[in-house]
Amino acid sequence: MVQSNGKLYFTADDGIHGNELWASDGSASGTLLVKDIAIGNMSANIISNIFADSTQVYFITYSNGSLLDTIKLWKSDGTNNGTINYHSFTSFDLPIQARIIQKNNNRIFYGLTIVNGDNILGLTDGTNGGSWIVSDSLSSFSQIPNSIPFINNHWIYPTRSTINGSGTEPYSTDGVPGNVMKVTDINPSGGYTSGLNWYFNQVTWGGFCYFVANNGSTGPELWVTDGTMFGTHILSDIYVGNNSCFGISSSGDQNFKPCIAGNNLFFVADDGIHGSELWSMTLLTVPIDESNNLKSPVTIFPNPASTEIKLNIADNDVKLMNIFNSLGESIIQDKIKNSSSTIDIDISGLANGIYIIEMVTINGDIKKKFVKGN
């Protein structure tokens, strides 16, 4: 049962129309059959969840109540005429399970489990040209993802590749058919990167995704990504060595249980000393644009960088600079004493990862993100 635009949506069988989509405003007279998709007493066979946004719901059916018929994705505004076939699936084996995972940028991200047990991820904007298979290589997982991180206008999802023995790793797409990129090879040994956390317990905040992964040497631990190679790294080896701080589940993240309050991430972990206890960490500050009071834009280049970054501060009067790591710790602090429009900063001693640079000026504060890589 889901809510959209003041109505509750659910499936029911009134003994006449079979199992179909219904909607209710909470009153007897306002509880009505939305559409008899499978005409007569046949059922529509809704094989997915009912997914709701603010104005519409989406669901997947056997279009005519027959197992041999086309699988269809529907959208509905709660009226008979407003319940239409959004997309028809014509290239799949018969699915035994389906899930509409989420909707971003007017695209539906869905998953199907077909008869041979393989799981498929796909995207559709309701058109044939905008509908495509994102991944058909999820057979190592037992279920369709509950959610897919959507950060910086990209979906980040796990898929399995046999090329160079890379195993299961995070991939990225902007939703344009064919635009797929491997984010990074977390486990370079070629093994299965167990505990890809967004599969079960992913949490996103401020353009970053926090998840659990195993790089083959630290065991399943807490990681972060902004969807780029240099922006994907381990945050902390909580249980030092090749141990899991999140229990011994096959997914590696069963006991992660993340929760965000304020700008803090709370989770359950075991450091090998205290047992499973509640932990917290300060999340990365959300990168923001310059204050409207600044005289000129501020830029960082190159970005990513390996040894040095240059801050082009133009004619802004920067008094103080702080660099924070992904744990929110201040690792570099400097008072700016010269009036040059460009500031050179040596970052060769920093570990690869994501950093926030904060500059204090007389006209406002500036916060920018940069990435350190090799």
Lay out the secondary structure:
Blueprint: E1 2-4, E2 7-13, E3 19-24, E4 31-35, E5 51-52, E6 57-62, E7 71-76, E8 83-89, E9 95-104, E10 107-114, E11 119-124, E12 132-135, E13 150-151, E14 154-161, E15 167-173, E16 180-182, E17 203-205, E18 208-213, E19 221-225, E20 233-236, E21 259-261, E22 264-270, E23 276-282, E24 299-301, E25 308-312, E26 318-324, E27 330-335, E28 342-346, E29 353-361, E30 364-372
Antiparallel strand pairs: 1-2, 2-3, 3-4, 5-6, 6-7, 7-8, 9-10, 10-11, 11-12, 13-14, 14-15, 15-16, 17-18, 18-19, 19-20, 21-22, 22-23, 24-25, 25-28, 26-27, 26-29, 29-30
Shape: elongated
Ends: how far apart? 49 Å
Number of strands: 30
Strand-pairing-aware structural class: mainly beta
Mean pLDDT: 81
CATH architecture of the domain at 299-372: Sandwich
Strand content: over 45%
Which blocks of ≥5 consecutive residues have pLDDT under 50? 194-200, 286-293
Helix percent reads: under 10%
What is the CATH T-level topology of the domain at 299-372? Immunoglobulin-like
- Name the strands of the widest sheet in spatial order: 1-2-3-4
